[in-house]
Design goal:
Elements lengths: L2 E7 L3 H13 L5 E7 L5 H8 L4 E5 L4 H10 L6 E5 L3 E3 L5 H9 L3 E10 L2 E5 L7 E3 L5 E3 L2 E2 L2 E2 L9 E3 L7 E5 H6 L12 H11 L3 E12 L10 H18 L5 H21 L3 H16 L1 H6 L16 H7 L6 H4 L1
Parallel strand pairs: 1-2, 1-4, 2-3, 6-14
Antiparallel strand pairs: 4-13, 5-14, 6-7, 6-13, 8-9, 10-11, 12-14
Helix pairs in contact: 1-2, 6-7, 7-8, 7-9, 8-9
Length: about 325
């Protein structure tokens, strides 16, 4: 099955210099693309000179993760896309288990490999770990990572399993389904647009899978690190967007209200931590959400109330009150 490995780039010369060699070495049967978001550094001239085998797609502007990929993928003809962050190191045979999953299971639309921390390679990485899940109120968490607690990889998640969402750090998707869903929602700009896309795919009956026999290493935070309040703004606002767009119709308004109350509590927690800019970011995220609420409601296409979209009732309660820090305890 033909696969296109597509790396979104914005002023990432150092990352490309560091990580492209592993992708080229271990992706011999794939076509490799750089989708460039109007970089102003010398990253593209560097790639053309150092790695002439790589295809370059030049986007006219930096539209973020969502628009950047949407624009680029319109120009790529392949049955499978592998969307890979520029700060990812891949391993030998990383593609084979993924391709086998798509071949064996026609309902599988999206796949994520095991994502480990490049800086601490025996631990799972924050952005995806061993596959993403949602709780009843739409809070995301991962096997191998609950909030900021990261597990060591001891082979406990070397399985293949159904998940709620796959990480955008390394995101495999059938191209026909990507275009059927009109790609990522560009109103997100960046962060959690992959959760929304996976949720929309699940609402149409497709499967999202984690394949633990494929491994990649991710730096994480190379674009926006955790201390950046703009990342807080995007995460809180975009999570509310996803609820409005994708929750069952009998839950959407009550659950959004509950989430907003919990967001307020999170804001007070930031104040206690001395992180005032993050509290302000939450307030701004809510005002942005209000301003776009009608638009998000217009994007709802899911009307059913009987599909289960979550894997635990409350990850907040489980972690902060019951002190659950390993996701396997949520499965018991």
């Amino acid at each position: 099955m033909k696969i296109a490995v597509v790396i979104l780039n914005w002023n990432g010369k150092k990352l490309l210099e560091q990580f492209l060699p592993s992708i080229i070495k271990f992706s011999k049967n794939a076509d490799i693309y750089i989708a460039d978001n109007a970089s102003t550094d010398k990253s593209i001239s560097f790639v053309k000179k150092k790695f002439p085998v790589i295809n370059i797609i030049s986007n006219p502007e930096n539209g973020g993760y969502a628009k950047g990929y949407n624009d680029a993928l319109k120009k790529i003809d392949a049955p499978l896309y592998a969307l890979v962050n520029s700060d990812v190191e891949v391993t030998e045979n990383w593609l084979q288990p993924i391709l086998q999953e798509f071949k064996n299971n026609p309902k599988t639309a999206i796949v994520q490999p095991k994502i480990l921390d490049y800086k601490n390679k025996d631990k799972f990485e924050y952005a995806g770990a061993a596959g993403g899940y949602l709780d009843l109120l739409g809070y995301p968490y991962c096997r191998g990572r609950i909030f900021n607690v990261l597990e060591k990889d001891k082979g406990q998640y070397n399985d293949t399993s159904l998940i709620n969402w796959a990480s955008g750090a390394c995101f495999f998707i059938k191209s026909e389904i990507y275009h059927q869903l009109n790609g990522f929602d560009e109103d997100y700009f960046a962060h959690q647009e992959e959760i929304d896309l996976c949720w929309r795919a699940s609402n149409l009956g497709y499967d999202i899978k984690y394949v633990g026999t494929s491994t990649i290493y991710h730096i994480g935070g190379a674009t926006l690190d955790e201390s950046n309040s703009y990342k807080t703004f995007l995460n809180f606002r975009n999570s509310l967007y996803s609820l409005v767009k994708n929750l069952p119709s009998n839950k959407v308004f009550v659950f959004v209200l509950l989430r907003m109350i919990l967001d307020a509590i999170a804001g007070f927690r930031f104040i206690l931590q001395g992180r005032l800019s993050h509290m302000i970011a939450i307030i701004k995220s809510h005002f942005s959400f209000y301003g776009n609420l009608r638009k998000m409601l217009s994007k709802r296409t899911f009307k059913h109330n009987n599909l289960k979209y979550y894997n635990t009732t409350s990850i907040v309660w489980s972690h902060f009150i019951l002190n659950v820090s390993k996701s396997k305890k949520l499965e018991n």
